[in-house]
Amino acid sequence: MPKKVVLAYSGGLDTSIIIPWLKEHYDADVVAMVGDVGQSEDLEAARKKALATGASECFVEDLKAEFVRDYIWPTLRSGAIYEFRYLLGTSMARPVLAKHQVEVARRVGATAVAHGCTGKGNDQVRFELTYKALGPDLEVIAPWREWDINSREQAIEYAHAHKIPIEQTTKQIYSRDRNLWHISHEGGELEDPANAPVEAMWQWVTAPERAPEKPAEVEIGFEQGVPVSVDGARLEPVALVERLNELAAAHGVGRVDVVENRLVGIKSRGAYETPAGTLLVRAHQELESLCLDRETLHFSQQLAVRYAELVYYGMWFTPLREALDGFFAEAQRPVTGTVKLRLSKGNVTVLSRQSPYSLYQTALASFRMEGYNPKDAAGFINLLALSVVPRRGAKR
User: Fold this and answer.
1) Which of 115, 139, 173 is the last residue of a domain?
2) I need a surface site. Which of 18, 234, 307, 373 has the fewest CB within 10 A?
3) Are residues 166 and 241 in the same domain?
């Protein structure tokens, strides 16, 4: 009886050639699972393609609401940004995809799961740590660590030899990942950090110089650190992200070109388009600055670095990340209010911050010496100076 394998399937280059490869090398019954995380692709076409190239079944799972509610919102609430620039779009999507892949494996009685991640990347870790957390009994098959194909050019040759329809060519060879939060681009000229991205590579965010001359303004509302409204209208999570994606992308907001440190120990270069995410992260930071006391804010910023690492490293289903969620749920209780932003040719400017829990006191912040005895500062400074005044006889 052939092995039954559930493949995380996208219909892209890698997973397209994996179906026939699994059938050839494992004599496997391949079940494909397509996770809809808002990639704006024809998923019915992907389902038909999977079946046409050898899958016995193909499940299309709608994961958009779960993705935003249970993965994007907690990460946003924590302030997690990997290496201060990457907004973790792919990193957050992999655990929800792998989770449902395991569920499909249980549903169809499969004994193995497979993915199309390369042996150099982070995604292999993200998928497999989720498998081990939720389905430790399942065998893991990672073709990029087994087959003789060692480049995307060879993968394209394999697809042509097996008459598998693909969009990639040796001239358009980017590896892309798209979901509701972002599009990532890797490969091609990006492999040399001395090269600027070509304009044709970008697919979503308008070139800033071509954005409308008239700026746009948008007000984003939060409750306990979670976005709930746009311009006063309450929206469901998916609709809220989609609305802000449309607005930000049209005004050239959300492009970033990053050299980052992969978990596996190498540096890589990627270009990311994250329109709604750029607005939401900025607005959330501004509201935090208004509502959180100094000690909680500074400690949250330290934990945000660790939270970002956990997400980037694929350690979503771990006790530490879940414990950090407990901290942020409590710490973010006062982060409720609205932030108004202006969008203009790729730039985001803060226009206003308002909250019923604001800790900002105009009388204290004013240059007028009211509500505060400035003479108290002298003793305060003297106490602080005890650690910086040279001790008698000590050399400086």
Assistant:
1) 173
2) 373
3) no
Q: What is the pLDDT of residue 160?
A: 86
- Catalytic annotation on 325? no
- CA 321 vs CA 78, 237, 354, 377: distances in Å: 10, 22, 30, 41
Check whether 356 has a pLDDT greater than 90: yes
User: Domain boundary at 157, 173, 189, which?
Assistant: 173
pLDDT in tens, 81-114: 999 999 999 999 999 999 999 999 999 999 999 9
Same domain, 304 and 211: yes
Task: Give the domain range for residue 154.
Answer: 4-63+88-173
Contact status, residue 254 vs residue 248, Cβ threshold 8 Å = yes
> 65-69, 174-178, 374-378: which has the highest mean pLDDT?
65-69
In a domain, 82, yes or no: no
Arithmetic mean of pLDDT, 221-249 = 98
Residue type, 68: V
The active-site residue out of 10, 14, 77, 300 is 14
| Given the residues 123, 178, 255, 344, the one annotated as active site | 123
78 within a domain of the structure (yes/no):
no
- pLDDT band, very low/low/confident/very high, at 372 (cuts 50, 70, 90): confident
Residue 68 lies in a domain: no
Average pLDDT over residues 296-308: 98
φ/ψ bin of 371: left (φ > 0), alpha (ψ from -120 to 50), beta (otherwise): left
14 labelled catalytic: yes
C-alpha to C-alpha distance for 344 and 34, rounded to whole angstroms: 37
Catalytic residue of the set 16, 78, 91, 175 = 175
Which of 77, 94, 176, 269 is catalytic? The answer is 94
> Do 139 and 221 belong to one domain?
no
**Residue 123 annotated as catalytic:** yes
Amino acid at 262: R
